[in-house]
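Help needed: design a sequence for this.
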């Protein structure tokens, strides 16, 4: 039997699908994110976390709180959950709960504020008390266990939070809500607000049942943002026929959810609607 020789080009891609640095610096390291280099031979990162000063309780060489299965940091610099100087979770910017923590004065916070604006207001951990740091750390460590950590809320998660969440708010991403039945009428409607029943204007039964109706505000380039949604099962004026469908949904939903406490669902970020006609500007 004749011998055969098998060969193949050296595989250039490593951790996270990033191309290895063989030609430029000749290190063979992988770029795991914009600010990180990873040496697969040692199983270690070469450079410090550029935000290490904000997280003195963990190694400056670790990432995602040493929990890469539950936490996501696509750039190596991600921050979004926002805390006050007492270590209390205030809410999120327009990117949700994932990433490192931002600390700011409570008066500067606005739920769903732009990420860039939140970073400008970030005062870091310098000057906050050990007690506040302990509180912040405990809260931050618990974020991955929240039902809204991924920015999406299922009906079962919403109802469980109604029963067990003690009225605390949740935070979900507008980009993950199905708005496929809602169309943009053009730039002449920028600034206007409209109220939509998602059971009639969405292809997601889950989103229709979780949010019921949603209020959207138009922005340029067919973009919309949403107002917070109130998760409860109260009936509106029963003498108004327009409320009958909503009241029926609320009655059935309340029976299914069980006894609980109402809460707000803060909807962060924006999404783009499809123009009702292709040539609509």
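Sure. Designed sequence:
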């Amino acid at each position: 039997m004749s011998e055969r020789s098998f060969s193949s080009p050296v595989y250039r891609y490593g951790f996270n699908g990033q191309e290895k640095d063989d030609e430029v610096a000749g290190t063979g390291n992988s770029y795991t994110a914009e600010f990180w280099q990873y040496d697969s031979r040692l199983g270690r990162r070469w450079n410090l976390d550029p935000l290490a000063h904000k997280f003195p309780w963990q190694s400056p060489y670790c990432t995602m709180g040493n929990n890469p299965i539950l936490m996501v940091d696509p750039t190596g610099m991600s921050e979004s959950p926002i805390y006050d100087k007492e270590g209390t979770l205030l809410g999120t910017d327009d990117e949700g709960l994932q990433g490192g923590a931002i600390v700011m004065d409570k008066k500067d916070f606005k739920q769903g504020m732009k990420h860039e604006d939140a970073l400008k207001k970030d005062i870091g951990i310098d000057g906050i008390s050990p007690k506040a740091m302990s509180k912040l750390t405990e809260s931050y460590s618990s974020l991955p266990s929240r039902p809204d950590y991924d920015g999406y809320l299922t009906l079962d998660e919403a109802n469980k939070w109604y029963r067990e969440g003690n009225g605390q708010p949740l935070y979900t991403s507008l980009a993950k809500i199905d708005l496929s039945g809602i169309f943009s009428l053009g730039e002449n409607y920028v600034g206007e607000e409209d109220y939509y029943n998602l059971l009639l204007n969405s292809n997601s039964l889950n989103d229709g049942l979780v949010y019921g109706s949603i209020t959207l505000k138009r922005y340029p380039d067919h973009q919309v943002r949403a107002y917070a949604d109130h998760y409860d099962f109260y009936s509106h004026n029963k003498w108004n026929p327009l409320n009958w469908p909503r009241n029926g949904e609320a009655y059935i939903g309340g029976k299914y959810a069980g006894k609980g406490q109402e809460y707000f669902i803060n909807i962060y970020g924006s999404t783009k609607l499809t123009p009702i006609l292709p040539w609509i500007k």
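The chain has three domains: 15-45, 52-145, 155-275.
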